[in-house]
Write a structure and sequence with these properties.
single chain; 380 residues; alpha/beta; 6-stranded mixed β-sheet; 4-stranded antiparallel β-sheet; 30% helix; globular
């Protein structure tokens, strides 16, 4: 089990992590979420003893990472898949790690097979793609068959087959009773992989609960109800009945009703009691992405703006020169340049107005050869 108590890390005047406390329990995949700059990487580095906390502490199995005997046999981690000597082959890289931890060389070939790199084991890692590098990093984390595993963006650069493989691997490791801690920005993948979520924002804990409870707590669940379209009186009757029972009713653009505050069984009973036939009665729950965005909307440090493309649009020919419409006339301000067609910020000039076009030289007049002239004279 991983336990953080009052974890704080400051870099000068900046506080990256502030008074962070949580537990990561074995037997489940725990997702670690937060916006960019929220302190996730700093927290994971403190877990592995790479950064020393300003205050507080974090333990793995009741001990600080640096005090664990033969830590690679107990904790496996993937923080940066690029942290590999590019001149070494995949097998030699893992073999070096195995020798440092007293792990048998046969284990190297086992993990290469687990991550699917057995066919490129003798190739240098500097020629690996991003996805292959991720697989090599996961192999290094699995090398000591540890009980605690930490992964930072493990599916980065993987193809769909690789993403599915990582998802199943995480679940399998957790089902074996291991502690699995995964940081990722892919909400759709976290929704399919994680059992529990720890969410931080600006270095502070925002949420620590199961994924199901997190979605319910940060979204408004509702039911969609649809009555026959050719019977508006039934729709009005059902609306009155649901409102009287304490439900919230809002019309949807497609003619359905959005009902909140009442379970589906209660809605069905009220419709039956009102003698209203239902064409649809379905529950709706927000996705993890929707719940996450709602939770962290106040903790985002980097927000994008609309690109106005200021200064990139070219003025029309003659703009600002005498003879141009509106030039020098009272009350006529210079007109803005015309809008560039939406095909990128550069629009090619119209035909005949390209200053870089080369005017082709006139083709030489063809002179009939001697054979043609002789034939013509013979004919005469």
């Amino acid at each position: 089990m991983i336990e953080a108590v009052g974890l704080t890390k400051r870099y000068g005047a900046k506080t990256a992590v502030h008074n962070l406390s949580f537990q990561v329990r074995p037997g489940a995949v725990t997702g670690f979420l937060g916006p960019n700059g929220s302190g996730k990487s700093t927290t994971m580095r403190m877990m592995l003893g790479l950064d020393r906390p300003t205050s507080g502490h974090v333990t793995i199995g009741g001990h600080a990472f640096r005090s664990l005997p033969n830590a690679p046999r107990q904790v496996g981690a993937l923080l940066d898949a690029k942290a590999v000597h590019g001149g070494r082959s995949a097998r030699n890289h893992l073999l070096c790690l195995a020798q440092l931890a007293g792990i048998p060389a046969a284990r190297v070939d086992e993990v290469l097979g687990v991550v699917g790199l057995q066919d490129v084991a003798k190739k240098r890692s500097n020629g690996f793609s991003l996805g292959m590098g991720q697989r090599l990093g996961i192999a290094a984390a699995l090398l000591g068959d540890p009980q605690v595993l930490l992964f930072d963006e493990p599916v980065n650069g993987l193809d769909p087959e690789g993403i599915l493989w990582v998802r199943n691997l995480m679940k399998q490791l957790a089902s074996e009773g291991r502690t699995v801690f995964v940081s990722s920005h892919l909400m759709s993948e976290m929704a399919l992989t994680a059992d529990h979520l720890i969410v931080i924002g600006r270095g502070q804990l925002l949420s620590d609960m199961s994924i199901k409870d997190f979605i319910s707590a940060n979204s408004a669940d509702f039911a969609r109800v649809r009555t026959p379209a050719d019977r508006p009186e039934e729709r009005e009757k059902l609306t009155a009945s649901l409102t009287k029972a304490g439900g919230g009713v809002m019309p949807e653009p497609d003619g359905a009703l959005r009902v909140t505050g009442l379970p589906l069984s209660r809605i069905s009973d009220l419709a039956h009691a009102s003698d209203v036939r239902l064409w649809e009665l379905s529950p709706h729950q927000a996705s993890l992405e929707e719940a996450y965005m709602r939770m962290t909307q106040g903790a985002v440090d980097y927000r994008s703006t609309t690109d106005a493309k200021e200064g990139l649009q070219l003025p029309p020919p003659g703009y600002g020169q005498p003879g141009f419409e509106g030039y020098g006339q009272p009350g006529h301000a210079p007109q803005p340049p015309p809008e560039v067609p939406q095909q990128g910020w550069y629009a090619p000039p119209p035909p005949g107005q390209n200053p870089y076009a080369v005017t082709p030289a006139p083709a030489p007049t063809a002179t009939p050869d001697r054979t043609e002239r002789k034939t013509s004279e013979d004919s005469r």
